[in-house]
Amino acid sequence: MSPDTRAKMVKAAHQYAEGARVAVRGVRKKAFADIKKAGPASEDERKRLEKQVDEFTKSHVEMVDAALARKEKDLAA
């Protein structure tokens, strides 16, 4: 591949990764809305659920970032 083609592919990979991050954050926002709507029994329960959603979001964003890093490495080779 030419350097120009590689650069275009890396740029496309970054766009896909950002789209995935936005999708994960959208799910987080929906989950928070559902938690508030359902009205858990206590404030502690709501905070616990929100913390779980945040951890889930963080782990999935990290997976997207790791996949992007692998793809960049593959394209550089």
Instruction: Count the E strands.
Output: 0
The end-to-end distance, rounded to whole angstroms, is 10 Å
Uncertain runs: none
Annotated CATH homologous superfamily: Ribosome-recycling factor
Strand content: under 5%
- The gross shape turns out to be elongated
Task: Report on the biggest sheet.
Answer: none
Q: Give the assembly state of these chains.
A: single chain
Total domain modules: 1
CATH topology: Topoisomerase I, Chain A, domain 4
Task: Name a few traits of the molecule.
77 residues; mainly alpha; Topoisomerase I, Chain A, domain 4
3D architecture notes:
The protein is built from two helices and no strands. It is mostly helical.
Care to give the gist of this entry?
The chain is mainly alpha-helical. It has 2 helices and no strands.
Topology:
Elements: H1 3-38, H2 43-76
